[in-house]
Prior knowledge:
Elements: H1 2-23, H2 38-63, H3 71-98, E1 101-102, E2 106-107, H4 132-150, H5 160-183, H6 188-192, H7 200-218, H8 231-250, H9 258-284, H10 291-305, H11 314-334, H12 346-364, H13 384-414, H14 421-426, H15 428-433
Antiparallel strand pairs: 1-2
Helix pairs in contact: 2-3, 2-4, 2-8, 3-4, 3-5, 4-5, 4-7, 5-7, 5-13, 7-12, 7-13, 8-9, 8-10, 9-10, 9-11, 10-11, 10-12, 11-12, 12-13
Amino acid sequence: MRKIILSVILIALLVFTFFSNFLLTPHTTASEAVVFDTGDTAWMIVATALVLIMTPGLGFFYGGMVGKKNVISTMLQSFMAMIIVSVLWIVIGFSLSFGTSIGGVIGNPMDYFMFQGVGTNTAWNLAPTIPFMLFALFQAKFAIITPALITGAFAERIRFWAYMLFMVLFILLIYAPLCHMTWHPDGLFFQMGVLDFAGGTVVHMSAGWAALAGAMFLGKRKVQKVSPARITYVLLGTGLLWFGWFGFNAGSAMGANGLAVQALGTTTVAAAAAGMAWVFIDKILGHKLSAMGACIGTVVGLVAITPAAGFVSIPHAIFIGVFSSLVSNYMVSLFPKGKIDDALDVFACHGVGGMTGMLLTGVFASSAVNPGVVDQGLIFGETTLFFHQTTALIMVSLFAFVGSYALFFIVNKITPLRVSEDKEELGLDISQHGEYL
């Protein structure tokens, strides 16, 4: 029966795609034909590719941390996000995220359905110097990596088909509304004046809270303490993530300009400062300087600077990196003592790192760095922005956690989320994919 259902879905998709030109009506995009800046366009094409390489980088990062029996499955979860979300984004995800606002919460699903009206001769009004399609494809890479981030929490125990179903529902019902509320001009958070330069709420907080919900729902692994399969993979993954993050943050300036350079600088120093702080903390606590610690600390810094990258100065970025490393390191130390098996500390690093970055944006955001900042941070004697950042943090946390937990519950009713104990013991590489290292 499952094979029949899958075959019907594939045939229906092929038929619909073939006749889509006849079914879809012409659509006018956000602005009429314009002359684009070739420098901005070239940079954004590169930035889009840089963001995409983060997802296989994440695959290496996570894959190296799990046990040897689960490396392929863990890395494949990231790779499948590139495959599934790319199609989903074009069909309806982009429209839900950036279509005409419905109540400031979600976009009209029919505005850009199947990428109708998303062409190369028009522009999005907040990125007027690059083709509209380039903007849409750049945003697709953010959607791709978000569900991939979640996978670290339930590593080594989730059924692969259930994960893919969750991933689709998460993009449609959690990611798209958060993206619309934060980055669409008529979105709820955008209208509030919330600042999120490159995805503190949309990507990292949503993934972090979903990860916590998944870890709680699926329960503990049978064996929690396993030796990392390939620490060299973790190092390679960290390098790819840091490399790609320049597209993630500097690309969010939407052009080859001074703001992109500022984001490049803050991203560089925050990552370095966080990695340095993490290994210093480990040394103070009596631990050896480990490759894993250096890598995790660096990624935490990248996470924390994401919402602030284009709004804060270089010295403040160093503070954000160090402070976020302290907070996340403490959170990581708490989790093994509890009952929640967040296998790769996704909530402690991405969730907490994202929240720290959002709050510190409300502390350090400066109009001298970015003239678009209307309300400056606490350090400049203004309180409005910090209040808005805190309000958004609470709302996003509740929405992402409760919504994700509900999705795990629904998926589990449709198809079991967790593998059996025998298959967990055997390892997901063999039990889910029939492959092994």
